[in-house]
Amino acid sequence: MIQIELDNNKKLYFASDNHLGAPTSAQSRPRELKFVHWLDTIKTDAGALFLLGDLFDFWFEYRTVVPKGFVRVLGKLAELRDSGLPIFFFVGNHDLWMSDYFEQELDIPVYHRPQAFLCNGKRFLIGHGDGLGPGDKGYKRMKKIFTNPLCKWLFRWLHPDIGVRLAQYLSVKNKLISGAEDVHFLGEDNEWLVQYCRRKLQTQHYDYFLFGHRHLPMTIDLGGEATYINTGDWIHYYTYAVFDGEVCQLVVSD
Ligand SMILES: [Mn+2]
Fold it and tell me: Do 42 and 79 meet the contact criterion of CB atoms below 8 Å apart?
């Protein structure tokens, strides 16, 4: 459990699913600028910033190379971090090949699974949300391949111009960005992250569960003073969550 004490009037901010770089770097630029502008507006009262995954539509770290682009958002994160703002990065299923670049270059810790936080007496469980809860077997199988050390090693030895292009092709082809397939709310009882939260609550109380991944902003009352908030995305909704020290809620950015 990581503890954060918020000073007066400071807040926690949570955002996810920017998918920068998709469907093309030119088309993702306005979203990147909007996000960088948002980072500028929160820096006055942010006590900590949580990025809940899929910041990049594709990311891979070679030993000496990282993908081109994203200079503005990386620069802004560096500025905020250098000014003393704690930033926590949770990898999503699109950027799970993060290694130590964020830690080394930006001094931002990277989490590969959900992490508990205690802030002003409230318990948080925070993560990206992929592969949690029951079901989603196809994805879980795929994730095993993606995270397999031998597969990663083989991919690393493809020339980046081939590897990155191949990954971008596969990533953009799959749904969310193209808008080819709509994301539908499955109903409280069928949302597998809701089921995941309910199971967690059987052994440990949390005041707030924060996840991304669904690309659907939602706030779901789990009963017993527990709430699940999904941060939505920065493609269609431009939503984020903010915790003012007492209450956590979803906000649409302007
Ligand atoms: Mn996503």
Answer: no
